[in-house]
Amino acid sequence: MKLTILGSGTNVHPTRAASGYLVKTDQLLLLDFGPRTLKNLMAAGVNRHRIRHILFSHFHADHFADFVHFFFDAVFYSRFVGTRPDLTVIGPRGTKKLLGVMLKNFPGFNAAQFKTTIREVGDQTFRIGRTRITARTVEHSKRLHCLGYRIEYGRKVLAYSGDSMDCEGLRQLCRQADVAVLDCSFPIQRRGPNHMHAGDCGKVAEAAGVKRLILSHFYPIAERYDVTRQAARHFKGRIAKGRDLMRLTV
Question: Which of 7, 18, 154, 181 qualifies as a cystine partner to 214, CB 3.0-4.6 A?
């Protein structure tokens, strides 16, 4: 399993793209699609017209906004340039309502020459090809259903928190994971609402028995502190600070 971080920041980060992660198993999966991640997808040398499965954790703009540009481009490509495969979009409760309105009402979106399937998932496990995916509800926003994902392929496990606080759903996703990519929005000195800080990430990774922790989703304030060292106070495994276009083998 291969992971490419397309975006390791937030909407307001001056140097990092917002949330986006490309996972290659027997499938090509995109987890979230925040601002500036489409550009990084292209910079990574990936043919965007090969993307068939997009999984959203939730629909705050920093996890979703570049989907609009991606889909508009895909419609144009399918009409005037070449063929592209059908697209499946997977997400939490509310996905069908939001995307259904977009695909029906955005100018030109309903002219796509490919089929788009919208699927809502809850706390469940499903397969795409030979890849096993588990979704779990995580605690982030009271107004939105928010998911984290666990991806299993070839005896390797990747966990992705989306945006989350330390909660039971997240710890379940991370249990014995080879790699966990966790929401490290803040340093311990400046904890913000509805997200984890570096110490929380370390505690989750240690409790879940994670082998390698990747910190990501940084607000600018996190750059002023050594968040890796802060996480290491609680987690004794390998830790890395994520960066845009970082690639690793799970």
Answer: 181
